[in-house]
Amino acid sequence: MLKTFVFIFSFFCVFAFGQKKTDTLRLYFNINEITSVQNNLRLDSALKAIDKRSTDVAVYGYADFLSNEKYNIFLSQKRADNVKQYLLDNADYNQINIYACEGRGEKYSKDNGNSKGDMTQRRVDVYFEPVVTLNVSDEKLETPKQKDSIPPVSTDSKIENLVIGQSLALEGLSFEPGRHFILKESVPVLQKLLTALNENTKLRIEIQGHVCCTLNGADGMDLDTREMKLSENRAKAIYDYLVGKGINRNRLSYKGFGRTKPKVEIETTSEQEQLNRRVEIMIIEK
Fold it and tell me: d(Cα 63, Cα 124) in Å, to the nearest integer?
């Protein structure tokens, strides 16, 4: 039976599985820099990714320990202001509502004695919070407002080398930004996972959720529950789907890891964000 599992998963494992849209965008700056072409390009990508409906946005700027506190407050506010203005200048009409724009200076920066400062603290965090409703469909599967095509699947994985304890990042499942409800476009991938479990009755898995772009390994905010449990709630959504389709709950478990296991330590591109923003399946027993 394991061969069936290997065959099925070879069609859709390798890359990240998770939302395709932007939840949190973290922009990094050089020393004393307040804007950059690279960051503007990432903002362009973020605006294309969010829904055309109204989206609430918060912008927070930071500086590292270099220079003095007064200057760092000024610098961090300039960074935040420039990001805010760029968003307003380039967003579609009524696409975004910027409800906060604040420079927090060197509030979270610690002097490490390095004359080059701390790049992780020279940044602007942009939080995209789509205006949502708690009314969802019967199976908690939602239709996206602007349907995205499912990414092409990959067959490069060495699934035949699968061992107990190995985790697989999957592509093709997506969520609304900041939410744990699965989009309907994800159903084909869920059905393949369901088939694999049905045809390999000894298979036990753990469903693991991960997020990007938070500080100190923290989890993300789930806009539906207002809990800082986004990675766990997304993993549980997959768990609930499989149980609802008849898989014995004793064969499944789920866990949210927040950002404690990033594949990229500092995300500077949307691709790196997506590597960290994922759900993985770990083999417990086969």
Answer: 9
Contacts of 78 (CB under 8 A, 6+ apart): 34, 61, 103
Residue 206: is it exposed, middle or buried by C-beta count within 10 angstroms (0-12/13-18/19+)?
Answer: middle
Per-residue pLDDT of the chain (286 residues; tens, 9 = 90+): 555 444 444 434 433 334 434 467 889 999 999 999 989 988 988 888 776 556 888 899 999 999 999 999 999 999 999 999 999 999 886 778 888 899 999 988 888 888 888 888 899 999 887 643 322 333 444 433 433 333 333 333 433 345 788 777 666 667 766 778 777 777 888 888 888 888 888 889 999 998 887 777 888 887 777 788 889 999 998 999 899 999 999 999 999 998 898 888 887 777 777 778 888 888 888 8
On whether both 28 and 106 belong to a single domain, the answer is yes
| Cα 246–Cα 248–Cα 254 angle in degrees, nearest 5 | 110
Do 170 and 194 fall into the same domain? yes
* 148, 185 contact by CB (below 8 A): yes
Indicate if 7 and 83 belong to the same structural domain: no
Decide: 1 and 201 in contact? Cβ < 8 Å. yes
Token reading at 272: 């790196």
Q: Are residues 281 and 163 in the same domain?
A: yes
- Examine the domain organization and report whether 35 and 87 are in the same domain: yes
Tell me the residue range of the domain where 194 lies. 2-20+148-285
Residue 47: helix, strand or coil by DSSP? helix
CA distance 64 to 140: 43
Domain boundary among 130, 162, 183: 130
Are 98 and 66 contained in the same domain? yes
Tokens found for residue 185: 């476009």
Structure tokens at 254: 């789920």
